[in-house]
Amino acid sequence: MRTIPRSLRVALACCTTLLPVAASAAPSGDAFATAAHLHRGVNVLGYDPLWKDPARARFQPRHFAVIRKGGFDFIRLVLQAFDHMDAANRLDPKWLATLDRVVKQASDAGLSVILDEHDFNTCSDDPEACGPRLTAFWRQIGERYRAAPRSVLFELLNEPHGKLDADRWNALLAQILPVVRASNPQRTLVVGPTNWNSLSKLDALKLPASDRNILVTFHYYEPFRFTHQGAPWTDNRDLHGIPLTSADEKRIGADLDAVAAWSKANKRPVLLGEFGTFDKSGTPMVDRVRYTATVRRDAEAHGFPWAYWQFDSDFIVYDIDHDKWVEPIRQALVGKP
């Protein structure tokens, strides 16, 4: 296990005055201050060849500047690290070097970074096997990034679900949180509830009352029949032509009102970590834009920072093949409400 390289420490340190979440702006232990400096984000690099063969990367370093200029101030960096661990749960040095470069490039572009551990299916299918691997991941990453500025956040696990139910997830959190806090006592952490980070399970999430530097995340894809129509990995694979109705829009408002009420009652800030619409089903762009703008508007009305799913692959806001924004979706996200 090694700490963050000196070259990366220097590079990151020089950026703290440029980033939205500077150390001087965020009181120790207060995730509300962190949330106040995050506004509009996008999920990146989850399924890019970069992680296994940088020479084949679709996403290029210049895209971080494109994201910043396009109206976004943070990225949620989707990491599937278990594929890059050996039998002793040690992270591959080459993968770590790639991660260092990506964090530096994003930071240089003026973006805050959420490191999102995204091995959610593996962990949810076998929580017992997941525990040691997830703990080992955060022990290594915690040590490596302990000197990084507060503009780097740690998201402990994306979308626990299935066998990783509320009881098991709370128990796993109780194991992992002390490991991370040992090396990063003032780092803002991102944690969401079970059932795919569902708002319906916020009340089941158990966090230490003394740790106020946790940003609670939820994901929102309702109505699912609309956002995932035609998505081949879902039961909606054969659904097409599902419109967005006025009743759907009212439901979105009511759901986000409920999250805001939970946030107020529990004195915890909230991040909308994912939302979007599947882009390969033939759903009319006008409906996709209306949905995106509705969720964005309601989230911002409550002061929730948000991260759109996603930059490349599917649900896209940027067309890498043609090197241009999907402008109607970008405008729905960052244009005039």
Architecture overview:
It is a single chain. By secondary structure, this protein is of the alpha/beta class. The protein has one domain: Glycosidases (TIM Barrel, Alpha-Beta Barrel). The protein is 41% helix and 12% strand. The chain is built from twelve helices and ten strands. The strands form two sheets. The chain has an eight-stranded parallel beta sheet. Strands 9-10 form a two-stranded antiparallel sheet. The protein is globular, with a radius of gyration of 19 Å.
CATH class: Alpha Beta
Tally of individual domains: 1
Arithmetic mean of pLDDT? 92
Tell me the fraction of residues in β-strands, as a range: 5-15%
Radius of gyration: 19 Å
What is CATH's topology name?
TIM Barrel
- Shape verdict: globular
Strand order of the largest sheet: 7-6-5-4-3-2-1-8
Low-confidence stretches: 1-29
CATH superfamily heading: Glycosidases
Helix content: 40-55%
